[in-house]
Amino acid sequence: MKTNSTRQQVALAVAAAEDKKAEDISILQMDRSSSAFTDYFVICTGTNPRQIQAIADDVELRLKRAGNYPNNVEGYNRAEWVLIDYVDFVVHIFSEQARSHYNLERLWKSAKKLTPAELRKPEARAAATKAKAGVKSAAKKTARKRPSRTTSVRTAAKKSAKRGSGPSGTKRSTTRSTAARKKK
Predict the structure, then answer these.
(1) Cβ of 14: how many Cβ atoms within 10 Å?
(2) Which residues, 6 or more positions from 44, have their beta carbon under 8 angstroms from its beta carbon?
(3) Annotated domain spans of the chain
(4) Cβ(82)–Cβ(93) under 8 Å?
(5) CB proximity list for 151: less than 8 A, separation 6 or greater
(6) What is the pTM of this model?
(7) To bridge 82 with a disulfide, which of 33, 64, 88, 93 should be the other Cys (CB 3.0-4.6 Å)?
């Protein structure tokens, strides 16, 4: 799935949680070099089981309207820790006690913490990232165009060897030496 549409879906889930008065909403963008199984975590807290279920219901409803159905929902009946898995992102809705016990933010401390405002502005960040990448790639291209002295000497030696001339410019003999013939 495209990252931009994933970010939009995560923003929908965050908006649903905010509308249902979820507390302490955290968005973690998982590090690609880690062994993360998803791109984003949305972590929030509900004050009681009914609110936790209401947050889960609203997240599911909004994303279903957008055409995105959860792959799996766990913990809804107990309402201590509701996990809604959308493959590209996972929504965790905790009770206060369960959140402090499991402390996912500490567990995934290598993940980048985003604010809802940063999540809703992917175009500006993507443009800045592309601009930086463009400067880096231009620098790499320039570096490739200017070979070092040792590289140009090696290249000249390879070209002369292909043409058949020796280091002194004399034509090499194409016949084998007598010692090479005796080895066969």
Answers:
(1) 24
(2) 17, 22, 23, 24, 25, 26, 55, 91, 92, 93, 94
(3) 3-120, 128-161
(4) yes
(5) none
(6) 0.64
(7) 93
Q: Which residues of 61-75 are buried (b: 16+ CB within 10 A; e: fewer)?
A: ebbeeeebebeeeeb
Burial class (CB in 10 A: 0-12, 13-18, 19+), 10: buried
Q: What Å distances lie between residue 105 and 118, 167, 184, CA to CA?
A: 18, 65, 71
Q: In the block, which residue shows the tokens 């909403």?
A: 25
From the list 28, 20, 5, the residue with the least C-alpha distance to 58 is 20
Residue 119, CB half-sphere, CA atoms under 13 Å: how many?
A: 25
What CATH superfamily is the domain 3-120? Answer: Beta Polymerase, domain 2 (3.30.460.10)
Helix or strand or coil: residue 149?
helix
pLDDT digits (tens, 9 = 90+) for 55-98: 999 999 999 999 999 999 999 999 999 999 998 999 999 999 99
CA atoms of 4 and 7, how far apart (whole Å): 5
Q: What is the pLDDT of residues 100-139, one digit of tens each?
A: 999 988 888 888 888 888 877 754 555 555 555 555 555 5
